[in-house]
Design goal:
Four copies of one chain form a homotetramer. By secondary structure, chain A is α/β, with parallel strands linked by helices. Helix content of chain A is 34%, strand content 22%. Chain A has two domains: 126 residues, Rossmann fold (3-Layer(aba) Sandwich), CATH 3.40.50.720; 160 residues, Dihydrodipicolinate Reductase, domain 2, CATH 3.30.360.
Chain lengths: 336, 336, 336, 336
């Protein structure tokens, strides 16, 4: 049994995490923290959790969190997260950080994309990236794991095998992603006000989204060379789900069946990757930790289509999967 | 040609109004006001209006509005609206007030439901209610018209004929309404944040919604006696539309066909009321000024079902219809 | 460990059932049948089940189903279901029938509402109704259980305590329900074609819905007297969820707090009923087996608001809950 | 005044067309045809048209259509459309064909993509393409106009200026489109059944969509050279709207401002093209004939984002615009 806590329990990733953790046979939730919601029952903050968890949300000091929990999930905003993580680590707590703070490789890149100095710069570059399909052994051994971003997960999983084996040009990759609105978080704003974004699609942060350097860094590590991508996120009128379409240039002529077979071989032992022949829909993966992937050759280009639930495989499900790996459980525990 | 202005041009009713007015053959928009959006092009405030209206939104003083406009549409919040209306009236401007300020009959009721003193109490009770199907002559002669609320429009139109002719018990009426989210306005809040209200239905303000006294007052005027209703609004995950289901007790035995024929006779000359045999859907009336109505007898009760577009017949379309009546045009002008 | 099968595996209730059953610690799925989909992998019929269940759908004869399964869930259309159930019962199999076939009390009522003769008339009236909150002991002892309809579940749970204790008039009850589109099943038709029902609300089958006699029979059994309801279902543009608003007449004066306390007391030991003070939203119960209930007094009437996930507590979750009761497990198993 | 008819009045494009035509000041609708819906009032076929058009849908022979109408809008399925068009042309009627039948350049390409022989092969290649922003003079003089496809309109408008002036590589173009569900037509099928496609995104017909040769042909005519595109359509859970993101390679270095200025200059006299600085949303163009376009340079590639209402600028609005051009009216008539 692992005692776990969630830092920043009022958002959507924390809500999904809590729903998964109550179902996990070897987990006991012992702390839920929030600065704004101190002393409210979690069932009041998230009516979906009413009657499922009896804890209250508390504004707890870090040492108390460390005292209560063997494993902590960080759902704080970036920067605030690294502050908490740094302190927690001194207590020996194991941490899965769902913020973006430990995903990049160096403080300069972080500063350029997140527009402030990193509070814990020395750990950038050495913290394992929590994609168990690629970094299982590092995750198993880690005290701190950087849980991947939602868009990066959807883009890295189909592209990584092709890049690792050098099947595609590493500097001519287009990533066109479509995401549900929960990815924008729980703070109301005009762009996520129902009558504004319902029945509408739009692109945003074109060429400037913070997940760009994360995608490039991880794919670069896997490829063993510099990777450059054009990344365009789009907002879709649905709660959850990301569908990512990528376009890349093969370095020699492949058949569609070659690509599909290669992806199948790569992911054959991985319980959450489903390489399929049909075109997957985000709904096929909704409320699950699966990533569905297919590929086509169109006019000589490789087109991949992949989808995940942005709140599960793109955040909280991956976090539970990481915890399972860190604590030696079957990856699938609590995620069926 | 009528020169018109809109006070409070940044909300959804103003947007819909502007879209209708640019299409109206005898209207010229000469003023668009807003306190927060001063000097921005209207196409920036509402991208849908880009290239359709070249005016800017201005923070104009009332006398300047009066100088520019023969007719003003008030889209301000309640209380603020009555302040502006009172001053505009002194300049001789004709006004259609889309706020709730002039819909009720007396200052005490207003204070009880809106929780502040009315800024212009003497006009309560004497201002015509802008439902041309029932108050056409008063509207035609008026300088100021109180444009009806969206829920009241959807409830009054089916019930009024039955009450005027005394076919149903005036004190045993249940009104169960279902509204799209645009009815909640354009200010972002958690309840209208997409991932909260999408894929969900809920009731709100049960027994306490401010449209209750408006419904009772107008139905009471038409019935010539005291009317009491139970009114329950529900929030539906769609942009626009209201469907209202009412349950009332007939004072003697009627056939379904009697009720339908009676409604048809009442509204036979009215271009925007469609009494239908089938169950209407809000989509049938979306983006139009129509109200679709049907009725059934179920276990001895009269059940009516009516629907409108809350932003058109429930707000801006009705306002244009009122303007047409006030200025002697065909009611349908600009509304086809 | 219980070996279970699903008859009619291609619809939405079967899909939800399968998702719940794979998570259940004491269940092994051993048969999935379908006439149209013979020999297809279940992951092809329902891409969501890909990689979660390795069985194929088969067009199996009933004796083979009986041979493989201790417990069978019937997800066939009405009439077809009773044919299968009758034969299965002769083999000693325990059955939870999700069709409407065994919910009514007598063959005449069935014929009037379902427009054909009942294939197994003798069991009407004696088959336990699978609402464990009310009929737990009968369910525990039964070989066959009639799983409740979705609308009835949402309406019976709030009204039953009030009727059992005689707090409300049993013949003056209005039930106004709002349901997501999955309730209409998986067969495409114009009314559930996306561009028709999206962004729209409508009523249907007013006064004629087949769940009316089911609601009246069960409430009548609980009240110990004749119950008459007016039931109006509405179609809401969302996948899943039912919100039911009821209006009834108290037989004496109650406070809101009396009603809420009474409901809390009644359901205090029931893990899936949450009596709440706020207005619940269907999303609070989505993907769960909970039923959220609140109540208000408005102008002397009792107004209850309740919501469920129509596919879970309104169908497949209730079926698993019934199986747990029948096989002596904790009601919550597989439903957390 | 132009007398107009619609062939195939039961679908969504016919519905939108009828709504536009009733508003057009110089149009009189004189014929609405359908094979399946003979003799039904149009308001029964499309409840939205109830009370707006009093005509009935009729199964009319072509000579009678020609007798009644100066201008006919063809909303029939491909192949059936060319049969009707060929006969109508012999009567001297002017026709705007909304099917795909006259959009391609030669019968072989048509046969390859539409999988049957073209019924009127000689007119392929010589029929003007109804995009008035590019082919105004040809349209004005034509008896028959091929109304563009929805995806092609959204892709051609942003790319055409760049290709005509040779700013981008004509054989390295990626077009990633996102469309609402109405684009799939009004015939119910599983993929457009609400609970299947709601809350989900998916790609379809990747590399095989029939709009591919149409896009390539028209862009090729404008570029004066061979154009090759990769085109990926996606289905989005909304009624209407297409957002198209394109990725192309500039032949030399441009600034973002160069591209935007160039697009603005090209379309400066065009009332329905809005080149904007912000990222447009499909909702900005919903229910209008506008196409909103913006562009960015990302890592040396040109990224354009454009959106339209697939039923208006992508079908019926463009058809009315074409009629205006053919009959010498202001392009905007009936489209404000």
């Amino acid at each position: 049994m692992v005692s776990v806590g969630i830092l920043g329990a009022s958002g959507y990733t924390a809500l999904e995490l809590a729903k998964l953790l109550v179902r996990h046979p070897h987990v006991k939730i012992t702390a839920l923290t929030s600065r704004q919601e101190d002393a409210r029952a979690i069932g009041e903050v998230h009516p979906q959790l009413n009657g499922r968890i009896s804890l209250s949300v508390e504004n707890l000091p870090i040492p108390e969190v460390a005292r209560r929990c063997q494993c902590v999930f960080g759902c704080l905003p970036h920067a605030a997260s690294a502050e908490a993580v740094r302190e927690l680590l001194t207590h020996g707590t194991r941490i899965i950080d769902l913020s973006a703070d430990y995903r990049l490789g160096d403080p300069e890149t972080y500063r350029r994309w997140y527009e402030h100095a990193h509070p814990d710069p020395d750990r950038l570059g050495s913290t394992p990236y929590g994609l168990p399909e690629w970094f299982g052994p590092e995750i198993a051994a880690a005290q701190l794991v950087a849980n991947p971003g939602c868009y990066p997960t959807s883009a890295i999983l189909p592209l990584a095998p092709l890049l690792r084996d050098g099947w595609i040009d590493a500097e001519d990759i287009i990533i066109d992603s479509k995401s549900g609105v929960s990815g924008a978080g729980r703070t109301p704003k005009l762009t996520t006000h129902f009558p504004e974004c319902n029945e509408s699609v739009s692109a945003y942060a074109v060429g400037k989204h913070r997940h760009t350097p994360e995608i490039e860094r991880i794919l670069g590590m896997i490829a063993g060379r510099h990777v450059a991508v054009i990344f365009t996120p789009h907002l879709i009128p649905m709660d959850r789900g990301i569908l990512t379409t990528t376009y890349s240039r093969p370095i020699r002529t492949f058949q569609e069946s070659d690509i599909l077979q290669m992806l199948r071989d790569f992911y054959s032992g991985q319980p959450f990757i489903r390489v399929v022949d049909h075109f997957p829909a985000t709904k096929d993966t909704a409320h699950t930790n699966f990533c569905d992937i297919t590929a086509r050759i169109v006019r000589g280009r490789v087109v991949t289509i992949s989808c995940i639930d942005n709140l599960i495989k793109g955040a909280s499900g991956a976090a539970v999967q990481n915890m399972n790996v860190m604590f030696g459980y079957d990856q699938r525990l609590g995620l069926s």
